[in-house]
Amino acid sequence: MKPQWHKVIGGMAILFLLAACVSLSLADGSPWIDHDLKENTSSSDTPSAKDDFYHYANRSFILNTSVKNESGTVSSIDTISESMNKNIIAMIKTPHTDHNSELASRMYTEFFDWERRNRVGLSPLIPQINAIIEISSLADLTAFLCDRTNLLSLDYLFNANVEVSLSNAPAYAVWIFPTDTKLLDTSAKIHKNRSRAKNSLSYKNSCLTLERLGFTKHESRLLFKAAFKLEQAVDSHCTTFETGTTPRTFYTAVNNIRNRTELENESPAFPLVPILDALGFGAATEFILTDPAWLSFINEFYVEDNLELFKAYLLVHYSIKSLAFLDRTSYVLANGLGSSALETYDSDTDEKFLCETFSAFMKDVVEPLYVRAYNLAPVKQEVLELCARFVSHYEEMLLNEPWLSEETKRNAVEKLKQLKIMAVYPNKWEDYSDFSFGADDTLFDLVNRLKAIMHEHSVRKVNGYFDSDYWTFSTLESNAFYSNITNSIYILAGFLGGTIYYRGMPVEAMYAGLGETIAHEISHAFDSNGALFDGTGAFKNWWSKKDFAVFTERTKRVSDYYDSIRVFNGKQCNGALVQAEAIADMGAMRCVLQEAAKVPDFDYDAFFTHYAFNGCYINELSVEEEWLESDGHPLPFLRVNVCLQQFDEFLNCYDVCPGDGMYLAPEHRILVW
Hints:
By secondary structure, this protein is mainly α. It is built from 28 helices and nine strands.
């Protein structure tokens, strides 16, 4: 509710007081001001490396950069993905005669044939829409849901994926997740105002699409409300995890192993097992039911009286699922811009979205083309060599850790030796040589056919084992990460660019970018999540009881320290949320600094400045708030400052002393490793 100050003071005074309030509340952070928010940086600032290194290193970038996109954020490394996308498009436009190039070129042509897309309109949706409308009984609904043709084109009231088992890695299991509730805002309990805005956007977009499909405005609103009602009912019966839930508690809660008979017994009304059969997953020897409470509810809810709710859910979800591959109006709506942007939509992002489409549906077609076109073999070799160097050093770190027993050290080193390095691109790709597009296929047809092919690839994994030669992730994404359940680090080609990596870069820049990234992902194997999985990726204890108690206490110091930090508007950090990422940041920095000590005349100032710049983001307030309350990574200015203040190399480089903002006494430091 807005304050009723206008009853007692004039309008100009209101503006002054409100501006003063906002300025004060956004700059009340401790021990540092949040300079992710541009308004907290001024051209008159004279930041000191001793007091706020993030501000010191990034002031110029923050002052000279503005957030101009819909995401509400811009970072120092955005140019990496932009460059990758330009390279992909340039490659696709270059004439080639091989099969994969022809497939990629056809996708490009169909994507940008707006005349044809607009002419086709929403007609590809009509047959499925009519089939859902004609459902007149629960028996009809069951038959519809168990038809494989239908399953591959819509949301089927739960999600099933073939992924590595938590307990039996590297064997695959079929994971079963609750009903998709995309119409709800998943952060509704955090941001009620933003929740209403997002729900309003999904409401407008869904209703507009349904109207374009022939429903009246009244019918469209009723369908959305019915679908929304089903999602609310499901959401209220799904298991929730409170903030501060330990990783062990979480993984134990979701690791509900079932066989086929047990699933049949737990789902007597809802046709869970018949749907799994239709999908090709029914013969799996192991299923992981992530939320038994959801399955119990959906069986109670799956009755004739709720038939219209289920039909509405299918109609709404199907109508908006493939919008991005239909006409221009649908495409704009799919990109989350809302109906108000239909007349002013800027198409500059079209090629970016096409590249995301390649990554999602044609990675095994486009990736080998990219590797060949840009000669990534030497890059892969350099990345592998750097990975080997840091893995070797990590072994030294573990063996020299004074608080670990010899038994736990041996187990930790064994896990490290089993770590799989996925560098730059996979060793193998799926074969598309027998796949071709029909002359009359629309973009919608192409995408659905590709989805079907990818689904068959997934079916082939049932009862198989993880194969590190094939990646389920696209290397064209600008990312790097660690997988607990495969004990693998992925350094994707899409992340190698900008200030993170370029061939021939100075060693200081290399260590601050790619080196820090590699060490960070290795460190995740031993953070508060990774520590619960063994070298095979199984959710299995490898610690002595005493050592794990010490580890838990050390990780708690990390979350306690972050809990003590005030960011803005009186808000505190959530230490439990960011604990794992903070552990990985500090473990990586220790590893890299110890390797840097071996380099003659290493320039620490260049290293630390480069590191801080790579971590720089400028966020609008709404983005910063959501990051603070729902992202597992610390806010950017804290990732830099908290990590660096743990190390003597940093303190010595800038002569940081007691009383300086970046100083942290040795007894208060929070290194886990």
